Batch of 4 targets.
Target 1
Amino acid sequence: MSTERKESEKSEALQTYSEVFKRQIVKEFEQGLFTKAELRRRYNIHGNSCIPRWLKKYGKFTYQDKLTRGRPMKDPQSQRIKELEAQLAKREQELLVLKKFIEIAERELKVEIVKKSGSKQSKK
């Protein structure tokens, strides 16, 4: 009886799924309709690593290599845009600070640090 059980377990473990089916599972998960566990139960999917692999392969979001709980990460392109906008805002603030330093130094030292446009550069 134990050999019959092992054979049935092996046949379940070797179950294959079509690409259309996998994409449908990914779509349902990314739309937030079901969790991974609910999808496994609903469609009788064996193994905990099937759906995460499909998400990485067919999903439109970025998924970590480790298995995580919760919803997928935000769209990587919009996430990258936000990061770049934050870096730009920081650089603009730094530029304003540097311009103020130059303005103060010119006023205090009575020296022209920034050359005016159209002026000749000194030769060495």
Note: Residues 75-124 form one domain.
Target 2
Amino acid sequence: MVELLSNNPPGIWHWLILSTILFSIGLYGVLIRKSAVGVLMSAELMLNAAVLNFVVFNHFVKPFTIDGELMGIFIIAVAAAEAVVAMAIFVAIFKHKKSIDITHIETMKG
């Protein structure tokens, strides 16, 4: 099996299909989940699929630059900040509502 992979490394289409599958799973999770934490995890999966696209296109289109990797690092940093803010909001909602079920949250008014 290792010899088969060393002779035929995955090409750009393999990586793009993987990224599409990851993004689709994330989109499905955002649309179906009722838990706010589940929605956040699904959104993170979608952002990771975008990072994979940047890195793959950088590797196959301009292999000697680091533009895709820099965009990937930027997206990961933004995703980390987004997760921190979202978790703070979830904690505040949980204090008032005693649930983080997004179907029961109508407004953010005090």
Note: The helical segments are 2-7, 12-32, 36-61, 67-97.
Target 3
Amino acid sequence: MKLLLHTVPTPILLFVLGAVGYPLIELLWRGRTHWTMSLAGGVSMVLLLYISRTALPLPAMWFAGALAITAVEFAIGCAVNLGLHWEIWDYSNLPLNLLGQVCLPFTAVWFVLSIPAVSLCQIIDRAAG
């Protein structure tokens, strides 16, 4: 593990962790996923890494993480669902949604998931030196 942390750049390692973890969470949550969720997870974890390197207090990092993940989902959703009409997800029936691509209830979920994710980013970043 130590060799991996010193050989693979931290952003790449976290991209891979997010690209695997995000679809796994979705599989557990709704029983299916799509390859674009790997992209969303990878990008989200790299953003969480950069957020975790700031001087913000932890609750602000978690809030920033929730907003970052929501922004990633919105961008991908607009591209694949609205632009390409792939119909991977539609939150139109959920409260406080934006174009059916993101919604406040899932932003709250991202806040909760940002708590361990930010900590993981910090641990891996420190271990990588």
Note: The longest helix spans residues 58-83.
Target 4
Amino acid sequence: MRSIVIMCFLFSSTTVSGRLLLYSDNVFIGCLDCISTIPDSVCNFQGPYGKLTSLKSIWNNKSEYGNSDSLKSPWSGSTRGPTMMDENGTVFGWFQINPEGGYTQSKKLNDLYKSVNGDLAQVRNLFCKD
């Protein structure tokens, strides 16, 4: 799944410069396309952005960034969610599951989310699988 996200940006009209970062209300909540050994990666299962119990993790269903009731979460169904931007501040949209929100991979992310009944541990494992 992560490779789908990366491919989407490789073929978009605006190219990503450096890492693809997630922010919510100007709070950094992880690197979306970083390999799992990078501390900032959402796929570093021991790091502050990839751990299931971290307060800044999109995978923690009890945090404001992972709870489906929070508009700061990609799982809320809102047309907004965490902002995706590169290191130069170029915004590429919102990382969220609502296909009407403008993120080209929202339907696939939503299908993945629904296929595991919203179990974020499973979503994380599938999303971070290379």
Note: Residues 106-115 form the longest helix (10 residues).
